């Protein structure tokens, strides 16, 4: 596994895509009134896109509706100090059109937050990268 | 507990500061070559600042050395779909000066990534906000 300048393993695109399919929760990174913003969101994948469900009135819908955003997932173990992260960068866009909305409503995606969430944002990945902290305590194979 | 427009509980500043002291890992959000960037980092608090240890040659040191950044922590439970997040916004700056560096080196902070990490970034919180997904399945008290 190749290492980056910081000694972290570089995950290949295929592994990043696999990891994206394993977790229910990520963090969307965008800009809100010229300040960096980050918000946890649950998500599903649809045709390779990250799909998020939110309220039409949310800050997320307003600020990230048509912008280049980052989307991050990770899983770390505090005891062993190991783990991995995957970051997707792509343009977010609000889903429109009755056929697309019907398809998205049929996804197994319910917002964890209460209330009306009939607004869908999809992020089409243009860059995918991932890193893993190697477990140096594990026996070499 | 007051709710935001999305039905999430708004955590007060004191609770956010308490939560910041409970976790070892967060995510720093910055801009790298005009693109949104996000990276998991372990951290400690020092005099109320978020302190991160990185390599002097890292992308983080280069891009977030003197910029307004966001820093996010969260903890969610997939089964109950509950959890919380805290976001700090503030200016990041590289620590300089031998006295400051000596103090930071004495902190219980070792980067989880391998290699040289004798570069310290501290974020002085200017805005702190937090949200919690209420557990509607819990009995009302």
From TrEMBL, chains A, B:
Q: Give any GO molecular function from the UniProt entry.
A: oxidoreductase activity
Stated EC number for the protein is: 1.-.-.-
The record's top EC class is oxidoreductase
Keyword Oxidoreductase set for record: yes
**Alphabetical keyword list:** Oxidoreductase
Origin superkingdom: Bacteria
| Protein name as catalogued | Pyridoxamine 5'-phosphate oxidase family protein
- Give the source species: Actinomadura rugatobispora
């Amino acid at each position: 596994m190749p290492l980056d300048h910081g000694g972290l393993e570089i995950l290949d695109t295929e592994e990043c895509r696999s990891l994206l399919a394993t977790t229910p929760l990520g963090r969307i990174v965008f800009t809100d009134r010229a300040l960096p913003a980050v918000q946890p969101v649950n998500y599903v994948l649809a045709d390779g896109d990250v799909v998020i469900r939110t309220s039409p009135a949310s800050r997320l819908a307003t600020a990230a509706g048509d912008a280049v955003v980052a989307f991050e997932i990770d899983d770390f173990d505090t005891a062993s100090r190991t783990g991995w992260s995957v970051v997707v960068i792509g343009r977010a866009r609000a889903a429109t059109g009755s056929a697309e909305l019907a398809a998205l409503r049929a996804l197994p995606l319910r917002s964890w937050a209460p209330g009306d969430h009939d607004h869908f944002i999809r992020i089409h990945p243009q860059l995918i990268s991932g890193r893993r902290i190697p477990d140096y305590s594990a026996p070499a194979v």
